[in-house]
Each structure stands twice: as structure tokens, then as C-alpha cells.
Design goal:
alpha/beta, 18% helix, binds guanosine-5'-triphosphate, UDP N-Acetylglucosamine Acyltransferase, domain 1, 361 residues, six-stranded parallel β-sheet, 7 helices, Spore Coat Polysaccharide Biosynthesis Protein SpsA, Chain A
Length: 361
């Protein structure tokens, strides 16, 4: 039996205000809490037992997923009293694993959307005899990431944090947030204090001569840590560019959940999701966006690459482009919100009070 640990305890600060009431892995993407996509893909790869490492807003996971039987999984939940970081969280849940010391244990960050061949990562781990195997992905601009160069056999040679100069960019391979640990290695992580798996555990293991194996898998990969990426990932799921058996409907330009009301002449394109009980008024256009449950988009409004939170309202003729509207917020009529703007939960933007000027430095 393959087991997995899901790291879902982060505060998700980059995704605020979406993460004010909801932990990042539970924010809906393509109509279901994001985590559902990861769980269903793990199950399809043969995982049966999953332990959630929770901390921030820990109480919301279990009421939604329960014991996991609806997904064919056995789920357990472990909550940190104080956040222990990614490595400390692994050590904190290790006692719940059933695996023997030499068995492989999967670990997933709770905010990665990927088509990774999970079975191939486990197979790589077994055949290479590694202590830890890491999914690596290639990105065009690796400067914002930790680089993971490998040798000709795929063995990790270094962990390089956020390179600045061109000479430091020795590879375009980055840590993609999915690992296989030999179980006994998890038990060596220090107990009871915060530990970063990326900054402490992996470099420490390498320095001690452990075998860390990289597997470059270049299928779909996106870190959903920012609003822009989250909205993009959801749209890619709806469009069918990102693989998930958990999307509740057919792939296409839009996904409209039960109980939503969309005016006949409204246009929904680019992988837009309209949540349960949400409304889209006459003549409105919604492109590549997420409207969460109960959100309302007024007549003639234009919503592009944006997220409108649960119960939030966008007034008639308003334009949103790359905007995030927090749960319960109200954007009055005739506003123009662009370029990464975030409206906090329950805020009120009066009619016609925000305009955008491209000339602002
Ligand atoms: P930001 O605050 O926006 O950076 O997001 P984050 O808090 O989720 O941090 P990051 O994206 O670096 O975390 C990677 C993964 O580890 C995510 O799935 C987090 O939920 C998880 N994680 C981060 N810190 C902790 C922690 O202290 N405990 C647990 N259990 N999980 C964590």
C-alpha cells in the first residue's frame, strides 16, 4: 500500500484575501476545493492512505473530506499546535504512517497543479535506491525558485536558493513540490521544532552523503500560490489543459455548477467557472475567471482573469481584469479594477469610484 502526506498547513499569505477564511488547498478550483484534484489523482496512482499535515485553519479539512471513503481513500488529520514548517510537519505526522522503514512515502505540497506521473516517481525511487526522490520541472525563468541541478544519472548535486547572477543559473530545473521519501528518512527530521524541508532537510541530507534523486517530468505544472496562478490553474482544469478526473463536468470554455443562473446573452469563455447559486447578468462577459458560490456579476460587466469571492457582487458595467474580489465584497456599478488589485472580504467600493490609468508609473 502506498501512503502519502499532504502538506496543507501554510498560511497562504500570497493568496490573501482568498485565504482569510479558507486555507489555500480548500479554495475552489474548477468547482471543487483544490485539494480534491490532488487526492483523486493520488488515488488513481494507487495511494490509499493519506495523512494531512494541517496548521492554519486546520478545522475546515475534516468536515469536508471526512474519513475519505467517498474518494476511496483512508484520510487522517494531524494538526500542529505551532506551525512546524514543511519538514517539521512531516516529522510530526510520521507516527501515523503504516509503512515499514524501507518503504516509499509520497509527500505533496498542497498547492501544486500538475500532470506528474506519480507512479513513475515511485518507480524511479525504487530503481535508483534513493533516500529521497524529487519531482523536478523546468521553468523558463528559474530566478524566483530554488534550483536543483542533477548529474547524468539524475542524482541531485546541489540545492541553490534563488540565483541572482547569470553564472548562478546553472540549470532550469526547480523543485516541483512532490517527493518520495524512504520512510526511515522522515524519522530523522528533528522533532518538535520548525524545519524547512527545502532549506534545511534536503541540503543537510546532501551534505551527509545521502542519495537524492531527481526526476524531471515536463508535463503540466503550476504553483497555485498567487491569485494570478490560481485563476490560471482553475481555467486550465476547465479547459482540459491540466488533467484532473475531479472536474465536475465536461471540459470546455466554461463550467457552470448546479443552481447558477446565467443570462442567455452572457458570454462565458476561457475556462470560466460559475459557482453554485452564482449569477451572471444580461450582456456580461466572463473570461478565464472564477466566480465562487453565490457571487453576482451585474449586467454588462466584464470579468477577465479574475476571481470573485463567495457572495461577492460586481455591479453593472464594471470591469475587472486580473482582480481578486474577497468573499462578500461589493463592487458598485461603473468601476474599473485591474492589474492585480485585491478587494478585501466584505469591503464596499462605491459606484464609479475607481478608474484605471495606464500612465501611472
Ligand atoms: P505563502 O504564505 O503564500 O508563501 O504560502 P504557504 O504558507 O502555503 O507557503 P508555501 O507555498 O511555501 O508552502 C508550501 C506547502 O507547504 C503548502 O502546501 C503549505 O500548505 C505547506 N506548509 C507551509 N508551511 C507549513 C507548516 O508550517 N505546516 C504545515 N503542515 N504545512 C505547511
Amino acid at each position: 500500500m502506498t501512503e502519502a502526506i499532504l502538506l496543507v498547513g501554510g498560511k497562504g499569505t500570497r493568496l490573501r484575501p482568498l485565504t482569510v477564511h479558507t486555507p489555500k488547498p480548500m479554495v475552489p478550483a474548477a468547482g471543487v476545493p483544490f485539494l480534491t484534484h490532488q487526492l483523486v489523482r493520488a488515488r488513481a496512482a494507487g495511494v490509499e492512505h493519506v495523512v494531512f499535515a494541517t496548521s492554519y485553519l486546520a478545522e475546515v479539512f475534516e468536515p469536508h473530506f471526512g474519513d475519505g471513503s467517498a474518494l476511496g481513500l483512508h484520510l487522517e488529520y494531524v494538526t500542529e499546535e505551532e506551525p512546524l514548517g514543511t519538514g517539521g510537519a512531516l516529522r510530526n505526522v510520521a507516527a501515523r504512517l503504516h509503512s515499514a522503514p524501507g518503504d516509499p512515502v509520497l509527500v505533496f505540497n498542497g498547492d501544486i497543479l500538475t500532470g506528474l506521473d506519480i507512479g513513475a516517481l515511485v518507480a524511479t525511487h525504487r530503481t535508483s535506491g534513493a533516500d529521497v526522490s524529487l519531482h523536478l520541472t523546468r521553468v523558463p525563468d528559474p530566478r524566483a525558485f530554488g534550483l536543483v541541478p542533477t548529474d547524468a544519472d539524475g542524482r541531485v548535486t546541489a540545492f541553490l536558493e534563488k540565483p541572482q547572477t547569470p553564472e548562478e543559473i546553472v540549470t532550469d530545473q526547480i523543485n516541483a513540490g512532490a517527493y518520495v521519501f524512504t520512510r526511515s528518512v522522515l524519522d530523522t527530521i528533528p522533532d518538535g521544532r520548525p524545519v524547512s524541508v527545502e532549506r534545511e532537510t534536503f541540503p543537510g541530507l546532501l551534505a551527509d552523503g545521502a542519495h537524492l534523486q531527481g526526476m524531471v517530468d515536463s508535463t503540466y505544472w503550476l504553483d497555485l500560490g498567487t491569485p494570478h496562478a490560481f485563476v490560471r490553474g482553475s481555467a486550465d482544469l476547465v479547459l482540459g489543459r491540466a488533467p484532473s478526473p475531479a472536474v465536475p463536468g465536461r471540459r470546455g470554455e466554461h463550467l457552470v455548477l448546479d443552481g447558477a443562473r446565467v443570462a442567455p446573452d452572457a458570454k462565458l469563455t476561457g475556462g470560466t467557472t460559475v459557482g453554485a447559486g452564482a449569477e451572471v447578468g444580461p450582456g456580461a462577459r466572463v473570461e478565464g475567471s472564477i466566480l465562487l458560490d453565490g457571487a453576482v456579476v451585474g449586467p454588462g460587466a466584464v470579468v477577465r482573469d479574475s476571481l470573485v469571492g463567495a457572495g461577492a457582487r460586481v455591479g453593472a458595467r464594471s470591469v475587472l481584469d486580473g482582480a481578486v474580489i474577497g468573499d462578500g465584497a461589493v463592487v458598485g456599478v461603473d468601476n474599473e479594477l485591474r492589474a492585480g488589485i485585491r478587494i478585501w472580504c466584505d469591503a464596499r467600493i462605491p459606484a464609479g469610484s475607481v478608474r484605471f490609468s495606464a500612465d501611472v508609473a
